[in-house]
Amino acid sequence: MTYREALRRALDEELARDPNVFLMGEEIGRFEGSYKVTAGLWAKYGGKRVRETPISEEGFVGAGVGAAMIGLRPVVEIMTINFIVPAMDMVVNHAAKVRSMFGGKVGVPMVIRTPGGAGAQLTAQHSQSLEAWFAHVPGLKVVAPSNPWDAYGMLKTAIRDDDPVLFVENLVLYNLTGEVPEEGTDITVPFGLANVVREGTDLTIIAHSYTVRRALNIADRFLQDGISVEVIDLRSLRPLDIDTCIASVKKTTRALVAEEGWATFGIGAEIAARLHRACFDELDAPVERVGGAEAPMPYAKNLELAALAQEDKIGAAARRLLADCGLVDA
Amino acid sequence: MSKAEKAQEARTLAPEHALAVLRGMILIRRFEERAEEQYTRARIGGYCHLAIGEEASNVGAIDPLTDDDYVFTSYRDHGTALAVGSPPAAVMAELFGRATGVAGGYGGSMHMLDVERHFLGGWGIVGGHLPIAVGAALALDYRDESAAVLCQLGDGATNTGAFHEALNLAEIWNLPIVFQVINNQYGMGTNVEQASAEPEIYKRAAAYRIHGERVDGNDVEEVWFATDRLMRRARDERKPALIETMTYRWRGHSVADAGKVYRSPDEVEAWKERDPIVRYAAILMDRGVLDEEALAAMRKDVAQEISEAISEAASAPVPDPDGLYTHVYAPGWEEQFVHMDQAGPFGEREGTKHWRK
Questions:
Q1: Contact at 8 Å (CB) between B50 and B251?
Q2: Fold match between A3-175 and A195-324?
Q3: Is A56's CB within 8 Å of B330's CB?
Q4: Where are the domains of chain B?
Q5: Which of A35, A157, A330, B150 is most buried (most C-beta within 10 Å)?
Q6: Is A94 labeled as catalytic in the residue annotation?
Q7: CA B151 to mean position of chain CA atoms
Q8: Smallest CA–CA separation between B116 and chain A, in Å?
């Protein structure tokens, strides 16, 4: 099943399970979703459960907050993460604050699903990975699954969760195929648990979302050098499972954190800071960070390729780190 | 014709009801005067936005609501909290930052709420609560409830993008919501004519094919009957509306603003002549519902109630310092997020001992 179909199945099952669950977003009904995640659901559940909205991100994200405050469970789709910026006030100043600011007397059980990612020449305003912004904010939960199983299981967890969840998908992942839980098992994937997707002994690569796929390919490539790479899929950014990362790095003594977003003040910066403190004695080299080029994404294919945090870029950083430690030739 | 319909026709509240409405306005006035005093004595921190002068707009709009309706408002929310019936002691305790406050001391002046009475805040970003109120109306409609939302906002909020998006959504989705623009003439120190291309704000509703009307916001019965009519229409016909209640902020934007540099003393005095409480008391005296003695007794009774609220708030406990993280996430998540916090126990938990010499 594809990542896209896994998401759709989770939405379908949750709509069927709980009458308080409803979907809301631009083009998610008749148009079947800009990336077709919601295809068929409007026909099946009707316009009340699958509500089409005008181009009013601030308006309908805010409407999600209000509906959630009095007991519904809105699942809001933002067409791509770039378009959440007009709704930042609702996400950061409102959704994230409600429970605490009102003394715990009311909460916001809302999911915002939105894809980030780049690689199809969509250019500066449509190629960002902004999840670090949200992972910075107390009151929000932020998850970014990398495969169909987690996409399915974590979306179900998100919808049943009582807090606002930013559910970050990825444009390139939508067609990725993989296993999903069997029908009728109602298996979910909890938040706050990273997944060691490849065991290794020489280097830990920590990533989330599509970058996990890249990290796995890099791990394969290093096999011919006799290097064993461990790959950690964070899955969840807030809450963050740093303990799994720490345990891994204590074992491998080397770490690289990779992400599609910009590395400066990024996810990798956070993890590197924590690893340096927690694994100070064990580390054989400073934690390496790799992210996308710190420039608005250009259009021309060659420039885009140069900007992306692709396999070659991450692989080269890993090789430099290993060479510094004398494990491979530079 | 039902009793309510008769009252609508006469546009006059029954005597007992009228006295309760008058008392509601006096309660807000007295509460705000004492809050101002407590603020200057540093028993209240942060911002403190007072609704003195706007009592008729608050009480007149909230009194006709049913128990099933919902209320949202801006940060000038003490009057709204009192009008929905939150105990003055709990509202004052919130200002004092005490555990017995309506938000447990986590919200303060701008973030009053009363879930039981369907008052969902007290919001601090101008215009930000409008889409949220629309979402509440959406939920009422989703569940086929015979109820509506009253969303109060200031004149300044009508210049935000959220205002446009909220009204548009309310109309295309046929939601049960009434937007009450409490036009007190100023957004902080900027007057409506300066800030709004269409200063007759109620006319803006027409752009969304929403019914808009303007009433005297210092005439409590006028506000009462107009709001009652529009809320019924919202409940029964799922038609949103906008009502602009024309009033005046006697004080500055907040207690920290003297309210003098951007307006003339004559202007302030002219509005004080139209004091909504004095006006309504005079009307009730004309009707033979009230006399000077009863009014004095009412004022005394209210003053006593507020004094007791202050004493109660002042002696209430502060929030438990261990509760810093308690409400950030839903119950059950606290430990996991505290564990993650660098300012919390995490920083000392891992690694430090090894390299400290």
A1: yes
A2: yes
A3: no
A4: 3-319
A5: B150
A6: no
A7: 9
A8: 10
| A41-67 residue pLDDT tens | 999 999 999 999 999 999 999 999 999
Interface size A-B, in CB pairs within 8 Å, comes to 160
CATH class of B3-319: alpha beta
Query: What are the backbone angles phi and psi of residue A4, rounded to the nearest 5°?
Result: -60, -45
> Cα Rg for chain A, rounded, in angstroms?
20
CA distance A291 to chain B (A): 23
Contact A258, A314 (CB under 8 A): yes
Catalytic entry in A27, A126, A276, A282? A126
pLDDT along chain B (357 residues), means of 10: 71 96 98 97 95 98 98 98 98 98 98 98 98 98 98 98 98 98 96 96 98 98 98 98 98 92 96 98 97 98 98 98 94 89 55 45
Query: What residues does each domain of chain A span?
Result: 3-175, 195-324
Task: Note if A57 is an active site residue.
Answer: yes
| CATH code given to domain A3-175 | 3.40.50.970
Query: Considering only alpha carbons, which residue of chain B is nearest residue A94?
Result: B128
The whole-number average pLDDT for the span A183-203 is: 96
Q: What are the chain B neighbours of A106 within 8 Å (beta carbons)?
A: 113, 115, 120
Q: In whole angstroms, what is the distance from residue B12 CA to residue B294 CA?
A: 20
pLDDT (mean) for A75-85 = 98
User: Is the CB of B133 less than 8 angstroms away from the CB of A66?
Assistant: yes
Task: Confirm or reject CATH 3.40.980.10 for domain A195-324, answering yes or no.
Answer: no
Q: Is the dihedral of CA B138, B139, B144, B149 positive or negative?
A: negative
Distance CA(A35)–CA(B15), nearest Å, equals 62
- Residue A289 scores a pLDDT above 90: yes
Q: Which of A63, A94, A280 faces B138 most closely, judged by CB atoms?
A: A63
CA-nearest of B237, B1, B217, B145 to B227 is: B217
CB contact under 8 A, A280 and B351: yes
ipTM: 0.96
CA-nearest residue to A108 within chain B is: B330
Chain A CA closest to residue B105: A103
